[in-house]
Write a structure and sequence with these properties.
138 residues; 1 helix; 6 strands; 41% strand
């Protein structure tokens, strides 16, 4: 009888402790840590597949922007979204090259843990202007 109670207590302890331990390590999955930057490319300085890009990124305050310069290496992957064929479809991303990056493009960048090197760059598809033509002939 005494062993039965001790067994039940051990089982209960495992059922309580195991989920807490799994939650602490992210469910047992290895996560690549890093930060993200969203914004518009202001300048590109790339030679021989490496260099830097400067992004006007969203700031912490609403409506604020801050410039962030990131290193780009030959290991940085680039994906370029193409405009969807029909309205309501999601844009598809195709492989791109570092040389395809230009000032004025909207980008989402996954950075290294220290936030200084771009690991992945996704160039967003150009969006249609709302409200039609705002300056043409009357």
């Amino acid at each position: 009888m005494r062993w039965t109670w001790m067994l039940w207590i051990a089982v209960a302890a495992v059922l309580v402790v195991a989920p807490v331990a799994l939650a602490a390590d992210g469910g047992g999955k290895a996560h690549a840590k890093g930060t993200g930057v969203f914004g518009e490319i202001k300048s590109v300085d790339i030679k021989d597949g490496k260099g830097t890009i400067t992004i006007a990124a969203r700031g912490k305050e609403k409506g604020a922007t801050e410039e962030k310069t990131l290193a780009v290496t030959s290991a940085t992957t680039v994906k370029i979204q193409k405009a969807p064929a029909a309205e309501g479809e999601k844009p598809k991303a195709e492989d791109g090259k570092i040389e395809d990056l230009k000032a004025g493009q909207r980008v989402m960048v996954r950075c290294s843990e220290d936030g200084k090197t771009a690991l992945e760059i996704l160039v967003a598809a150009p969006r249609a202007r709302k409200g039609g033509d705002k300056g043409g002939a009357k």
